[in-house]
Amino acid sequence: MGNSALKAHLETAQKTGVFQLTGKGLTEFPEDLQKLTSNLRTIDLSNNKIELLPPLIGKFSFLKSLGLNNNKLTALPEELCKLKKLETLHLNGNHLRQLPAAFGQLTALKTLSLSGNQLRTVPTQLCGLRHLDVVDLSKNQIQNVPDTVGELQAIELNLNQNQISQISVQISHCPRLKVLRLEENCLELSMLPQSILSDSQISLLAVEGNLFEIKKLRELEGYDKYMERFTATKKKFA
């Protein structure tokens, strides 16, 4: 893409606070964006070939939304964690194995999408985020859900299409968790904590495509309690 085209995009972004440049084959984060660190509220660079996010990302202190779906990122810089106003972060379809240690400093974060990466565990950094509503960790390589998950504040947690065979009973202690998606994993029925049914806030549990028949779920203790929550929620959204 020529300089004049980029310049036009930059001029528009200066007025609108939105910089969107998707599917242009970009191999790096546009350095020229640093002229707009105080303007930009939204950056969307999805469907490019960006391999590295430069440390200057930490200077966009007013950024609310960052989209980097379908790039070639293998790691994220610690500087990303300085974005105190960031509410939405889309990183689907990259090659990420872990999150920066300071990721818990993204205190405004509400929506986090990390589908289709190479994560092997549910990142513990997510548990400190108080405003997190939706976390998408589908299509990764997660094998177990650790005890720390009990502190997760999310309302919806998507773990579809992983390799999960073990889930900590602590998941039923998540204070706000209403939707738990565990489709197409490696769960035996005996490995599904019954407290999810009998003693949690979860009102939608999606477990199709595991190592048990769905109708067996109905035989578990606590299933009636779960159905009460499920029905009540359904009525609310009907």
TrEMBL record:
Gene3D superfamilies xrefs: Ribonuclease Inhibitor (3.80.10.10)
Keywords: Leucine-rich repeat, Repeat
Lineage: superkingdom: Eukaryota
A UniProt-annotated Pfam family: LRR_1
Gene Ontology cellular-component terms listed: cytoplasm
InterPro entries cross-referenced by the UniProt entry: Leu-rich_rpt, Leu-rich_rpt_typical-subtyp, LRR_dom_sf, LRR_domain-containing
PROSITE patterns: LRR (PS51450)
Record's keyword annotation contains Repeat: yes
PANTHER family hit by this protein: LEUCINE-RICH REPEAT-CONTAINING PROTEIN 57, PTHR48051
The protein, known as: Leucine-rich repeat-containing protein 57
Originating species: Ceuthmochares aereus
Gene that encodes the chain: Lrrc57
